[in-house]
Specification:
Elements (H helix, E strand, L loop, with lengths): L2 H23 L12 H29 L4 H24 L14 H40 L5
Helix pairs in contact: 1-2, 2-3, 2-4, 3-4
């Protein structure tokens, strides 16, 4: 399967996960929680829905950009994503939902998901840009080396 088909399938999968996150953020509308159950809504919206939406929302534009790159760029990004995403999931789901007032700085699920989504997006963009530049420089270097060779060889 070509890397563009893989990216297309990933795009559909992430879009589906994004929609599931939207469902968890709107539990009342989708019938997950009763309208008067604020505890149920808080539980699903803040703990599950928001991290899923933020992570998938930051992944969708990256996958769109990867559609226009070479396979080597995709493979490099995939190595990064396979390490970053599981670590992020563990970090978000082990972070507390809220913190006590005595801590000057506490990383909640919301803050962890925002930070990791932004970091994922920025690192992904850097990987795509740097790897694409390196791949375009290699053919130019090969042509420069050919022109430096002596004509009698």
């Amino acid at each position: 399967m070509s890397h563009k088909k893989k990216i297309g399938l990933l795009f559909l999968l992430v879009f589906l996960v994004f929609f599931i996150g939207i469902m968890f953020m709107n539990t009342e509308k989708f019938g997950i929680c009763a309208p008067e159950s604020s505890i149920c809504q808080y539980k699903y919206s803040g703990k599950i829905g928001e991290p899923i939406v933020l992570l998938s929302f930051s992944t969708l534009p990256v996958l769109f950009l990867l559609l226009f790159t070479k396979q080597a760029v995709y493979e490099t990004w995939k190595k990064f994503a396979l390490i970053f995403i599981p670590i992020t999931i563990v970090w978000i789901f082990t972070a507390p939902s809220s913190c006590g007032g005595y801590l000057p700085m506490c990383i909640t699920k919301e803050l962890a998901s925002m930070f990791s989504a932004g970091l994922f997006f920025l690192i992904s963009l850097l990987i795509i840009i740097i790897k694409s530049i390196k791949l375009t420089e290699k053919p130019e270097q090969a042509e420069a080396e050919k022109s430096r060779q002596l004509p009698w060889r």
